[in-house]
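My hope is that you will study the record closing this message with an eye to the fold:
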Amino acid sequence: MGILRWDKLLLPLRLGKEEDLPETEMPGRTHFQRDYDRLIFSSPFRRLQNKTQVFPLPGSVFVHNRLTHSLEVASVGRSMGSMVVDKLHDPHTKDIHQLYLEIPTIVSTACLAHDLGNPPFGHSGEDAIRHFFIQHSAKFENKLTTSELLDLTQFEGNANSFRLLTNNFKGRRIGGFGLSYATMAALVKYPWESAQGTAKKKFGFFQADKAIFAQIMAATGLVNNNNYYRHPLVYLMEAADDICYNIMDLEDAHKLGIISTQRIMELLLAFFPETMNSNIRHRIDTTLKLVTDKNEQVAYLRAMVINKLVKECSTSFIDHLPQIMDGQPIDGLMKNLPEQTKAAMTTISNVSIKEIYRHHSVVEIELAGFKILNTLLEIFTEALENRNSTYSKKLLSRIPSQYELNNGTLYLDLLSVVDFVSGMTDTYALELYQNLTGISIPGISR
């Protein structure tokens, strides 16, 4: 038996409701199903529909936003979790621990939540927040600890997701969303703080949320001598995200005419070389002859590729499970796939970097988002430093009351500003930027 134990890893106790026993769950609806439902019906989740994934929105051609991406990741994660459960059956008795059956729901819920902390305007939003605090670090370094400053200069959407779900914002319930310990632990891709993240590039929690993080990790058995382990189900959530953004960004690029039909067909068919499995390739070729609509052909191949990746990632997870349960990290499921699959994925990744993520439409919205977020952060942080002026008071009144601005420390006040800005939709951030800079004034026509 490894260091990690499933009875702790799948702990159904809820944050803020630790006195409740697992047996108090509602009939016909488990704690983990309630976690999923809470996210689906939440305001932060709905706001993802107006946050850029890669391409600008809205447009005449529908492309993915953060919401549709998260839903697709959750679907893939659930499928992967179900396959893993099937493989966890005892080969002799066919019995399975009852808690294992919750794995698909836990994985899909973590997938729903994985992008909740990401700022508007795609991944450039994270860069914009980091850039602002790096540029102004001299002003803050004598007022913050080294770790606190790193939280801001190395701002990380993953850590922000953890904060959004667990922090007791003003007027809100204790325990944030009140999700189960298992779900929260399955969300943390990087179980270390920003001081360690400088070497690893990413981190999983801010200093302000360190105590809650430690509490969750201890309860789920993911800590030993102050060293934290990854929850095993994180690997499934991470793989589901990798599968979706690699494949679906490619399909979006095809719909927008950035990648030709011939090119995307070649990239997707590379997962099914004629020498690999004649039955599968024959079925694909037959279907492509019957289906003449180019978009439908691409959608069919995309589905076949995702199905293949789900199966192979599930197998990789089971193959590496003894190592994972012993607390030994692996590179990730996508890096432990068959060589032919890895080669096809590497080609797609290279094409995406050169031809999709550097496309002028993507770069333009990133540049605009960079300017907007930097300006908003500058306006509100300056107001914090001069909060007694009439102008600053008016500015700070624009920040909703749930974001406490009298925390007693500059670090927590700055985090509140970041909470506010990172939670904005693309549209709201643009409107607020235009209003505060005088570009447009509500109620006054041009």
The mean pLDDT is 90. The beta strands are 223-224, 227-228.
